[in-house]
TrEMBL record:
Main localization of the protein described in the UniProt heading: membrane
Entries under PANTHER family matching the protein: MAJOR FACILITATOR SUPERFAMILY (PTHR23502), POLYAMINE TRANSPORTER 2-RELATED (PTHR23502:SF132)
Single GO molecular function: xenobiotic transmembrane transporter activity
Any GO BP annotation: xenobiotic detoxification by transmembrane export across the plasma membrane
Keywords: Cell membrane, Membrane, Transmembrane, Transmembrane helix, Transport
A cellular component annotation (GO) from this entry: plasma membrane
UniProt source species: Paenibacillus amylolyticus
Family: Belongs to the major facilitator superfamily. Bcr/CmlA family.
Bilayer topology: Multi-pass membrane protein
Name of the featured protein: Bcr/CflA family efflux transporter
Lineage of source species: Bacteria, Bacillati, Bacillota, Bacilli, Bacillales
Amino acid sequence: MTKRKQWNVIGLALLLGVFSTLGPFTIDMYLPAFPEIAAMFNTNASLVQFSLTACLLGLGVGQLVVGPISDAHGRRKPLLISMVAYIICSLACAYSPNIGMLILFRFTQGFAASAGIVISRAIARDLYSGHELTKFFSLLLLVGNLGPLAAPIAGSGVLTFTSWPGVFISLAILGVFLYIMTQWRLKETNPPEKRVAPNFKLQLRGYGTMLRDRKFVGYMLAQGIMTAGVFAYVAGTPFIYQNIYGVSPTVFSILFASNGISLIIGSQIVGRMSHRIPEQTLLLSGLWLALISSVVVVVVTIAQGPLFALVLPLFFFVCSIGITSTAAFPLAMESQSKMAGSAAALLGVVPFVLGALVAPIVGIAGEDTAVPLGLTLLGTSIVAVVTYFLLVAKKDQNSAQTH
């Protein structure tokens, strides 16, 4: 690869990575404001966490809609329209009069933000395949995973000089920036001759075909269930760190950001090792790491261990998500070149739907215990490992016996 081509690849990964950070910023930037929002609307932790659930549902449903649209109408136009909608919804969140309206606007904000996630991944599949897709996707995640690292710090910074509505105004400004970037730098990668017919029944049939592919479903569920565990972590740690361990919003943001680093480490391990170690082996290693670290989290939460004893296994748990997500995506997408947007949508929607179901569980026992978080992480790890062996490993074994 020439230096110019290498720089073009890096530049594209940076651009798509910025778009993929829209999801993490939408989810994470207001986390330090959870206690303030609860006090402002005179409500409880579970309802505030439900605003996160609504956002996750919006991100999930939006991907199912935007993915097929981008297969039929190209990547740029749907992204531009979504950015305009995102700006409007972010401002609506900032001026919500009550918790109910905030929950509603968080859903629409998540729906609009979904375009950045699903279309950036579809563009990656438009341009690359095989090990090259794995390498490019790990590079994209290197940028995208800075979102979970930077978002809570940015949110905490905003909260030092203004109240929680300022967080959503900042997100609206981010939407303006991304709209400009789309107009200025993003080229169409899905030309008219490669697009699928804009037929709703055909799109549903395409989803049906993918959902009948046992290995695709196995990879999709393994990474989706694991990522749902991270959403439980995202929903639970603002209250656990600040209410149980008494840390300040700034310290919480630093602790939360450290796990953004672990996501980056996990994704880069896969990107650098994929030429030597099969992606399936890397995926399974990530699943085992998640299981072991979640067992430690359960022990620490039951024993009410010190803060560092909880932070360390959580670091490794989140690292495992970087490994599993980066390895599972190219494995699942390899056979889906004609419907890259729809496939990316399914791979994207499952984590958000499962995360939306799991996130409220961590607050079900109140704000003074971290045990539900530990049990939730352990449960998602066990289910992900079992799913992999039932749908992927067993399929490979059956294929080997047939041949």
